[in-house]
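Let's practice the habit of predicting before peeking. Look at the sequence and jot down your guess about where helices and strands might fall. Then scroll down.
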Amino acid sequence: MRYVKRVARTSLAALIVTTIAQMAFHGAPATAGDQFSGARDQLKAARSWGYQLQNVTAPALARTDFDLLVVDAGSGDGTWGLSQEEVKRLKAKPDGTRRLVVAYMNIGEAEDYRYYWKKAWAKKPPQWMGSENCRWKGDHRVRHWEREWHEILYGSPKSYLGRLIDAGYDGVYLDRVDIYYHWRATRWQAATDMVDLVAALAAYARQRRPGFLIIPQNGEELVSDPRYLATIDGIGKEDMLFGDRGNDKPNAAERVARAERNFAPLRAAGLPVFAVEYMRRAENVETARARLDQLGFISYFGPRSLAYIGRDGPLHPEDGDTESVNPPLDGGACE
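Done guessing? Here is the structure:
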């Protein structure tokens, strides 16, 4: 939800050579079942990850040694963002070993800087679109159960997900899964609607590319649904330990305990949790790192803007505290 810029005939021998080369690069056997298992196994084996949504450049990311990279994929139509060749290069770490490269995908908000956005929506939004998120410029809440939104997200090579698959990403990192919080007061089945959407996205992706990874961010309450748990390959979590009352202030103990309980089914299933914290004080980073290690989560520490890798970049306008600390002037909720 962050504001981001930017069949020929062949011989059997040639086909065998091509298949072997693809297997070597992707680190996955040829069968669909083994591809799925191989991608999942590599994700489970990840011990580090990086997360960048603004100012994304392939040369800088290529120098990192993260096992998993989550990056913004750009406009979706090639106007800006990583190229297919750059995505391919990022899959090799500096030491030559394979890394997973996953595309950020917002499924709970429509973003006016993506290819699918129509200028007319600014004055006359479609019925499936809700209010703008006042925290993140250009993001508009969606009624995630509506067919028209689904048709934008998946179902054809020209859909949002179809383009990400063709761009060569190993999977998608689904943001605003937790948009169902916004709607559940007026639509009691909003959580189930989100489970349906994630399951449909995953089915389409894996039909086109077996082993394609599905990693939602937040909304961990949904893992209590067996169908959801069977669909996802891991989960991302923001502000697990710090952030509710300020980037460098610890969360309430009961809030942390509740989150730990929500993650229990996922941890019992052996699926990884990728935690991101946005504090700036070094002592808080070390406190959080130790606790996340105890929980078995893979941690990453960066700016709330996600405008650069690590914690040492310049202060960004979007690096401020959470919405709960800085409410909008009209008293509403930015979420």
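How did you do? Residues 3 and 137 are 6 Å apart (CA to CA).
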